[in-house]
Sequence to fold (332 residues):
Amino acid sequence: MRLISAGLILGLLAGLAQAKELSPREIYEQTSPAVVMVMGHPESGKSGSGGTGSIIQADGLVLTNAHVVIEEKTGKPYPRLSVFLKPGRVTGDTKVDLSRMAKARVLAYSSPLDLALLKLEGVRGPFPVIDLSDSERTRIGDRVIAIGHPEQGGLWTLTTGVISAEVDNFNGVKGKHVFQTETGLNRGNSGGPLVDSEGRMVGVNTAIARVAPDGLPITSISFSLKSTVARQWLSEQGVTGTASAAQAASSSTKAAAETPPPVSTAPSTSAPQATTSPKPGTTMGPSVKPAPTEPPMPARPYNLDQLLSERSKAEADLENMITEMRGKMKGR
Fold:
């Protein structure tokens, strides 16, 4: 009887240890290395889209929002997609913080669910990953955090809050089940992870409400697609598993402890095409429209539109230089 009692006690203690809540700092240190910044550039290079993504497999699969990587004008993936990996330390200097750039292509996307799956190219893994967990265990009132790049804020920013409500079939889309959260989200957070107190990704941040029809401002109303919905969609695309929490913690801790080497910044010379489309029968609707751009104010960390414009111009200049050099070599 004593042995049985001791075994039960050990089992209970193990269960409690596994369910231990982490501090926001611990969650950030564990998960942020797997969070990336995503930028899409059109052929014109005059504008683009920016958002956040999560690396869900060590070989470089990235989950984000469709409206981050699908050009609204064409309804197709941006011809140039850049993904920026987190540096060892975020300094606030975008030239330093965004020095680890990799190219990416869209493997699959669904505008109704606002999900997209990307593949990193031209850079070798393994990459730090975040565990895409089962959101069914998450309840209203549970603590959550978001990591992303809110415009006019910092890069790889941490915000905290709780689950405020659950909404099934969001905006009339069947199967699009979301959490409402008070966690601070803004333009630039799109596609980033919503993480629970155990460091598990339970949502993909997808929408914000800021102004009511009568013009009154709305605060603390944001929405995150449940991870269970994302996992089902990924399964339909042939992605049947993501890293375990233990793998995520191990690879993330290692990545955070070491200063990462620079990644090639050579631009893509051809437009990436989606190699996998959503399940037959899925209606591809228009991408989600980004929030209206507010007039820039002084003394703010970074402006998303300006950053997109600068990056697009830098890539275009580098591509032109490479083309010119190749022409001269052929002339010889």
